[in-house]
Every structure is written in C-alpha cells, then in structure tokens.
C-alpha cells in the first residue's frame, strides 16, 4: 500500500468515529503505519521465508547468486550492519543475519560467559531474535522518519520535483528487515523441547532454523573435541518437530538447516535401532568400531550387535559412549546429509576442520549424486586460522606442481616474514575469492561468519583502550573513533538520532501539538554534526 493510500485509509477510519477522534491526524497515523511495516514476528518470518526461498531458487539457477551473513550478538550490531550494507551497496538483497548459539552462550547468558555447550538459557535465543528485529524495525522507522521530515520541508518550500521524488522514495523504501538463520543448537532436549523452542523462535521472527545432530546433553561447539552424534532417527524426530512448528504458525515455507558434526565427531551415545540388514539404523551401526567376539570370550557388562551371523562388540568407553571407526567421518557426513534432505530438511551445514574447497566439494558431489539440488550453509569460521591454512594450501599446491618452495618453511607460514611474498599474495587472493569459488565448486548457497562481531568488539575496544588510557588521551577517541565516524558517514555519530530521539519528537508533536517538549531543538549538541 502506498503512503497516499494509507492516508486515505486512516482518514476514512478516523472520520467513521466522528468528533471524539477529531484530534487524530490521518497523515501522522499513516506515517506511523508506514514506519511500522511488520506488526508481529510471524509477519517477519513469512516475509523473510519467501525472500530466502527466492534466493535459493536464484542460486540453483546461478551459483554466483550466493548469499552472506555475519553473526550478530546484539540488536544494535545487527542494525548497524544492515544500515551499513544499505549505505555502501544500496540494497540488502542476498544479505542476512546469523544468530550464533556460540555468541548467545558467551555474551547473552544470565550465568555469564559460557562455552558453546547448550548450557545457556534456551529463552535467550528467541529473545535475541526479537531484539534483532526490534532494532531493524527501528532502523526502518528512523530512515522513513527522516524522509518524512524532508518531505515536509520540500512541501513548505513549494518544491514539486523534490516532493515527487521523496514520495516515490517512501513508497519504494527497502526495509532493513532481512532473514535470520537462527541456531537452535541440538534442540535443548528431546523432540518436544525442540518443537517448543522452535515455535518461540519462529514467533520472534526466525524463518530459518539450524539444528545439529549432536546429543543435546553432550553438545559441544563444532570446533571443539568430544562431539557425540545421535542415530539418524533421533535427529529426524527433531527435524519433523521444527516442521510442525512452522506449519502450526502458518510459515509453510520456513527453512530447516540440518547440520552434521560427523566429520569431527568420533563418538555416539546410542546404538541405532535396526530391524533388518541395510536399513538406516544398520547403516549407522556399520560405522561403529567393533571387534568380533567368540561366545566363550564374552565378558561381564559387554554390549553386542549381530551382523551377518557374527557377534560383534562395539568399543565402549568408560563414559558409556561408543566409538566410530577412524576415517569414517566423510562417509557419515554424506549419509547424514542425504538422510536429512530426504526427510524434510532444506539446506545442509557440514562443520569442517578447515576451509578447503576440495574437501567440501568432494562431499557435496557425493550428496548430489542422490539429491541434485543439495546446497550448503557454510561456516567461514573464526576458529580457522585462515592465513596459515591458505598459505599451506598454496605451498602444497606449488609443491605438487614441482615448483621450488625451498624459500618457505611450511610450519612457519603464519610468520610476518612471509607477508608480501608471492605465496602469501596468492593465499590472500584465494581467501578473497573463497566464497565465490566455493559457491561455484562446492555447492555453498550461504556463507556466514559465526562470531565476527565478537572479535571486532574486542579488537576495537583494545585499540581504544590502548590509546585513551595511554599518551593519546582524548585524542585516542577523537582520532580513532569520532573523526572516522564523521568522515566515513557513520550514522550513529548522531547517537541521539540513532537511539530514536527524533522519532520521539515527531510522536510528541503528534500527541501534544504546540505543548510538545521536544529534544531536537537548537540547543541539541547533535547539531554539531549537521552535514
């Protein structure tokens, strides 16, 4: 609905109530409605699910149409990210937000900083989704509010051309609200617990939920040791639970991202249930590290499975966990992915130990032999040492080609001594094109960095503290922060405006008229930052 049509709708509504609503201005009511496009989180989930489905189809047609996101641990961080994207690129198309369970645990738990082991309050996850969308909706209201102020000025000046341009900008305004891929960990319990949490996350606005095949009560970060997976049927129960939550809430095209940690997980808590040879449970159990046992050698407390007429004892640890055979991780990943897609998942996530296109693409090609349009969400993780990994990849490639690598020590390639060398430059170029190359060669539809803003907050704070508390004093802030904000056009240099002061003034004027006590007058120090 256009702004003009919304004014007419509000005018009709107000007129129908007669004199008691005479003080209500239809134009102001229309502006408020336009500034608040999304009434509920479910409105957001339905809107963003459609966007994500369209983006998935675009990627299937052309892998150059991959999408990206950054993990955000606070609404303000997500808001500033989307404002920046609109400023630099003019559109939010193909850019999402990622909600990282790692950052919720480390930064948002009432227990204080926690490791990524599902120990944080599950309610903190939907709360962060709601917070992120609150800030994104406020970014819409702020931007539209400034357009309305410019529109009033153009009308007052009798500038018809500018008035027409601004009305078009208002009607064509692109929202800051974008899809969020949200981490539900391993579901925080059984399938019913997964369903209940998924429902809360969807109601808060999430259109895409990422769930992993680890045991809930043994869950570890994907880049830590000690990961324990569950049999496929246990995982599929949770995928079905999430789909039921989407359907119940009317988000029929909600997206489920099935993550497998099998590449780095050498343990399982359960022996899968199997009815007959070759079924899913039997295929899972086939990866167990077993020893054939003669009846005479049975020891107390042993557990056995039978296969092809043989009695096998799976290796069981003192933790009561069972061990997989070494070297089976990729095969288990491929089976996990095919099984998840065949049973309702939409996208895959394979957690790897390094960013290697050949490794990822090799697994995706095997999956695509069964499911041709299989595609990944991939974690461009800060847990990878990108510099060392890619320098070593280049070293290995050069060595395989027969090139002279005697000037380089493979174990020391992280050293600053190699900066600026041909090897380092080629490695940096591979890092620069990694997302484009992996989208084309390894089936990666969505590239994300799980916790970049955790690191940027730490780095920028360290830089400021070093300067401000050192010899630079106040110049450390002015030169390192404020001067850059002004010259680079960072919107929050006018922090009162960013926090909603001007929106509040507009409301005060609507509510109180000439009696409004507004904050944005001539004595507001933010006027020092006027363009």
TrEMBL record:
Active-site residue numbers: 221 (proton acceptor)
Chain positions recorded as Mg(2+) binding sites: 183
Reaction equations catalysed: D-threo-isocitrate = glyoxylate + succinate
GO molecular function, one term: isocitrate lyase activity
Residues binding substrate: 100-102, 222-223, 259, 379-383, 450
Cofactor(s) required for function per UniProt: Mg(2+)
Pfam families, per the entry: ICL (PF00463)
Keywords: Lyase, Magnesium, Metal-binding
An annotated GO BP: carboxylic acid metabolic process
Cofactor binding description: Can also use Mn(2+) ion.
Keyword Nucleotidyltransferase included in the entry's annotation: no
Xref: PANTHER family: BIFUNCTIONAL GLYOXYLATE CYCLE PROTEIN, ISOCITRATE LYASE/MALATE SYNTHASE
Protein name as it appears in the record: Isocitrate lyase
